[in-house]
Each structure stands twice: as structure tokens, then as C-alpha cells.
Amino acid sequence: DAGVIQSPRHEVTEMGQEVTLRCKPISGHDYLFWYRQTMMRGLELLIYFNNNVPIDDSGMPEDRFSAKMPNASFSTLKIQPSEPRDSAVYFCASRPLASGIHEQYFGPGTRLTVT
Amino acid sequence: AQSVAQPEDQVNVAEGNPLTVKCTYSVSGNPYLFWYVQYPNRGLQFLLKYITGDNLVKGSYGFEAEFNKSQTSFHLKKPSALVSDSALYFCAVSSGNTPLVFGKGTRLSVIA
Fold this sequence. Notes:
The complex is a heterodimer of chains A (115) and B (112).
Chain A: E1 5-7, E2 10-13, E3 19-24, E4 31-38, E5 42-50, E6 53-56, E7 65-71, E8 74-79, E9 88-95, E10 105-106, E11 110-114
Parallel strand pairs in A: 2-11
Antiparallel strand pairs in A: 1-3, 3-8, 4-5, 4-9, 5-6, 7-8, 9-10, 9-11
Chain B: E1 3-5, E2 10-14, E3 19-21, E4 24-26, E5 32-38, E6 44-50, E7 56-58, E8 64-68, E9 73-78, E10 87-94, E11 101-102, E12 106-111
Parallel strand pairs in B: 2-12
Antiparallel strand pairs in B: 1-4, 3-9, 5-6, 5-10, 7-8, 8-9, 10-11, 10-12
């Protein structure tokens, strides 16, 4: 398996522009998570899905952020409009629903810079 | 609510010496504990987990961690550090099939 795939790996955009980050989870995994990593706040959970349904989006910082999972193999995180304080590394992770307690598998991340 | 504390931002150790990266946790119910490692410009890689059973858990790359319920700790250890172990280490906790809650991370620097 190729693991969790994220694109783009790097994104540089100007303040006010729309940004879309993409994630393909590991095939067969039923949970998908979006995290944001910054030096100041560490790793923050933004939102997670179970079987394509959003379960908890309480970590989404503002209405400017939205996430979708239209099918089991694809998710997007959108920021509109983007602001310089959104600059961070955004990680997607997935996990199987199988019985027992399982670790999350992380993608390589998307480094977002908003100027 | 779940939380993890990693009291050290940075740990320095000489190559060949034992290393310890500290982690304490707070959770309602049974804790499920994890360690991840992050190399520069990479995602987080799973090292090991404690679910139940033996308090000493062995993981990848010679790492191990000891679960201590009375001290609510889950310290990461390795008997002999390598320069290639230099990375950012994260402790995480879950109370079940809930998302992992991560600590702030500890940067490990192994000096040759």
C-alpha cells in the first residue's frame, strides 16, 4: 500500500486566496483525520470522519475552514479566504475500523504558507 | 478530557548512552498510549503502543516504553542511542476509538 497520500506537498498563496488540500487515505480505513501542526500550538485535531461522515469538527478554527469526504478514498480541507496565520503543516491520517485499538497512519503533510 | 504532557522540549544525549523521553497523561477510563517519531519534512511514524498487558512495550528501531499507572506516565526509552534517532518525538493518548491527542513533542538530539 502507498500509505496516506496528500497533495500538494507545498502550497504558497497570497492572503485572501482559496486553498484546497487533498488526502487519499489507506484503502480499507474507515476513519480519516485532519491535523494542523504549528510551532506554537503543536498538533491540533481539526476534524475527523467515520465512513465519510464528519463526526467532530470542533477543532476547526473558523468558518473559513471546511472539510469534505465525498467518498471513502478522498477528502479535502478548504480554507477560504486564507490568512497568514493559517500558515502551518496540515496532516491527514487514517485508521481502520477493525476491532481493537489501532494506531493512526499519517501522510507526509502539506506545508502551507500564506503571504 | 484527555491530555498529554511532555515536560521537556529538548533532550540531548551522547551516542551510545541510554535515552529517556518523558510523557505523562490524563484520561478518563483506560488509557491507550502511543509514541510517534517525526523526521524533518516527514509525517509522523508510529513507534509503539500500550493497550493492555505487560507494562513494558517494545517497538520499532529498538525503542521501548514503560507504562506506569500510578504515576500516569509512559516514558520512551532506548538502551543505546544512535545519531539517526535524532528527531521529534510525540506521545499521544486515546480513551478508546477516539482520535489521538498529542503532546507538544520533544526534540531528541543525539550527539556523536
